[in-house]
Amino acid sequence: MLNDLTFGQYFPANSLIHRLDPRLKFVLLVFCLVLFLFFNNNYYTLGLCVVFVFLVLLLSKIPLKMYLKNMKIILPVLLFTAVLNMLYVKTGRVLLNWWIFEITSDGLNRALFFSLRVVLLILISATLTYTVTPNDLSEALERLLSPLRFVGLGSAVHVLSMMMTIALRFIPILVEETGKIMNAQKSRGADLESGGLTARIKALVPILIPLFVLSIRRSYDLAEAMECRCYNGGKGRKRMKQMTLHRRDYLSLLAVLLFSAVLIYLFYTSKGLV
């Protein structure tokens, strides 16, 4: 299961999405998330969002199995949310009535709609981390928040971007360390997969403690390495690679704006199905 966690990992490829400016990709991601959340209330807008996300996945040239691994991780939460939606909505035609549970057509409709919308949000978010390196993502965030230096928050912006870079880099490392610790405990006879909820929680203790110790040790090593290299924050630091917008960036921005215009039009003209 831990090997299926690919969020936060960069996947190198020669695609249009990879070549876009990281700042533009970050802004477009936030913009698309807002559109998906607030201007997506029927199956017409949902269908348009599905087509848009599918085109983005194709243009990224990232294997579909990379995205499916992320979906496998959140599948239990997705199913739990869908069940709650089915049982919560009581309007519409009754499809199933058993004991205290009642499933209606509106409840099933809402569960399907919101599940698909969550899937789209996860897919479009994963595209950013797959196509942008942690260093470029950190630099893009720092550039976007650079106007805050005029109010005395320049150093805080750099610290925030550095924290995000370190966090993204440590995700695959911690996943790998967790797998090693679990294999080591299993080789010593630890039972991590059987028993009730209490037994499984207790079985996590021999995993979490070594993982916590290793994380602290790695943080100390990283701090010493940064100190040995005379790292003193963002003041006076230069960038080896300068970010500039190209023609493909402007065309991509235009395409997203056209998509948003059509989506908003369908949002206000189509009758809500959910």
Q: Would you mind describing this structure in some detail?
A:
The protein has about 270 residues and is mostly helical. Helix content is about 70%, strand content about 5%. It has helices spanning about 15-20, 20-40, 45-60, 65-90, 105-130, 135-145, 155-185, 195-230, 245-270, and strands at about 95-100, 100-105. A two-stranded antiparallel ribbon has the order 1-2. The radius of gyration is 23 Å and the shape is flat.
Question: Nutshell version of this structure?
Answer:
The chain is mainly α.
Please give the structural blueprint.
Layout: H1 16-19, H2 22-38, H3 43-60, H4 64-88, E1 94-98, E2 101-104, H5 105-131, H6 134-144, H7 154-187, H8 197-228, H9 247-269
Antiparallel strand pairs: 1-2
Largest sheet report: 2 strands, antiparallel
Which radius of gyration do the C-alpha atoms yield? 23 Å
Helix content: 55-70%
Strand order of the largest sheet: 1-2
**H/E series, N to C?**
HHHHEEHHHHH
Q: First CA to last CA: what distance?
A: 34 Å
Name the beta content range: under 5%
Low-confidence blocks of residues: none
Instruction: Name the overall outline.
Output: flat
Number of helices: 9
Structural class: mainly alpha
Mean pLDDT rating: 81
Structure summary, number of beta strands: 2
